[in-house]
Amino acid sequence: MNSTVMQGNSGSPDVIVLGGGIIGLSSAWSLARAGLRVVVVDPAGAVARPRPGATWAAAGMLAPVSEASLAHEPLTRLGTAAVQRFPDLVESIRQAGGPDPQWRRTGSVAVAYDSADRDELRRRHDVQHRWGLDARMLEADECRDLEPALDPGVAGGVLIPDDHQVNPRRLVAGLLHMLTRVAGVEVIARAGRPQLVGGRVEGVRLDDGQMRSAPVVVLATGAWSSDVCPVRPVKGQILRLRMSARDALLRHPVRGIVAGREVYLVPRADGELVVGATTEDVGLDESVTAAGVYELLRDAITLVPGIQDLELTETLARCRPASPDGLPLIGRCHVPGLVLATGHGRHGVLLSALTGDAVRDAVLGRPQDDAVTACDPGRFTDPVTLEGRAA
Ligand SMILES: Cc1cc2nc3c(=O)[nH]c(=O)nc-3n(C[C@H](O)[C@H](O)[C@H](O)COP(=O)(O)OP(=O)(O)OC[C@H]3O[C@@H](n4cnc5c(N)ncnc54)[C@H](O)[C@@H]3O)c2cc1C
């Protein structure tokens, strides 16, 4: 074990994790599993629902192949490595008697509405092929064979067999279950800030003024880390609808391009249908707008007309923590004792289990997996400014 971790006073934790979204909770679980004494600090405490943060909004697509052509190769490699961490995590939750996180290999179908959209899908398919990923072009009638509810106008598609999905809310509940009931981790229902003494982190100052000491602090506050890290909030609006559980409208997640615009529809086994998501550079704003809901429903109904009869059960907006180069910041930084785990953008659920293990390795001073080295915060000149960043 790294000597920094051994310095905690008896009774104080080895690590405090700031932030209880999917990244903070996954990190806390990997650290606790490695035998470290961990405390999590988040205003939501250990209450499983509802929670602040992007995780509560996320659709739960684990889709590195579908997203490949929208990303760069290091991010795709990170995503394909990340998917492989899920079986172990899901099995741990099962063994601990936690809720089923509904992790499934459903594959997904990407569809194009008009011929220009089909050209774009073909371009993406070429990238997927070049990177050795499994994706197969579909004719329009093959798309409708797979998904009979698609509009007859759909021009073609791509089948991606290796995409997975999970229910992020149930995954959070499963992690909280393991942390509090199996690992005995304390979850403090407060906000906090890393506290520096002589230039190194000595713990966390809670918003009631209390100080909690620890030799290592993990900063996993998602979009709220934008005041100290090179991360910016990117707003996403998302909808939930209810299908008939007996007669699901869709069998696979469907990702559509409609006149150049992106929309996705993720059906769950319990009848929930998630439709997302907008991408808006408007700062830390969680308001649901008429335009956001209209645009998502318009494009979803264009692809799957039967949606107009479904009950709309939830509208929500949350902010993704986006980094300048699309890769998260994971690892130690120039402030001794501070480990960063933020900037996961639109892939935080996908990258959660892998990030947890990478945080554990950073805390313990172990070498990182090859795919994770690209996420070293040291690639930015000033990965954290704890006094606050200039706006
Ligand atoms: C609409 C939408 C759809 C998405 N769909 C997907 C998807 O399908 N697949 C996928 O992989 N990703 C998806 N994402 C992205 C994913 O949700 C995020 O990347 C991920 O949730 C980030 O997790 P996080 O733990 O870093 O941040 P968050 O989930 O935002 O959690 C941050 C936590 O920090 C806490 N916090 C803030 N300030 C403090 C403080 N001072 N002290 C203590 N705690 C604090 C907050 O209370 C919060 O709980 C989606 C995002 C959005 C918005």
The CATH class of the largest domain is: Alpha Beta
The end-to-end distance, rounded to whole angstroms, is 39 Å
Main beta sheet: strand number and arrangement?
8 strands, mixed
Query: Cα-atom Rg, whole angstroms?
Result: 21 Å
Present as ligands are: flavin-adenine dinucleotide
- Percent helix: 25-40%
Strand content: 15-25%
By CATH, the superfamily of the largest domain comes out as FAD/NAD(P)-binding domain
CATH fold name of the largest domain: FAD/NAD(P)-binding domain
Series of secondary-structure elements, N-terminal to C-terminal: EHEEHHEHEHEEHEEEEEEEEEHEEEHH
Q: Which parts are unreliable, with pLDDT below 50 for 5 consecutive residues or more?
A: 1-9
- Overall geometry: globular
Total domain units: 2
Q: What structural class results from the helix and strand content?
A: alpha/beta
Number-wise, the strands total: 19
Biggest sheet, spatial arrangement of strands: 5-6-4-14-15-16-13-17
How would you describe this structure to a colleague?
The chain starts with 14 loop residues before the first strand and ends in an 18-residue tail after the last helix. It is built from nine helices and 19 strands. The protein is an alpha/beta fold and 391 residues long. The chain has two domains: 3-57 and 169-231 and 324-379, 3-Layer(bba) Sandwich (FAD/NAD(P)-binding domain); 108-161 and 232-322, 2-Layer Sandwich (D-Amino Acid Oxidase, Chain A, domain 2), CATH 3.30.9.10. Helix content is 26%, strand content 25%. It has an eight-stranded mixed sheet, sandwiched between helices. The protein has a six-stranded mixed sheet with strand order 8-2-1-12-19-18, with helices on one face. The longest helix is centred in the first third of the chain and has 16 residues, at 115-130. The structure holds flavin-adenine dinucleotide (FAD).
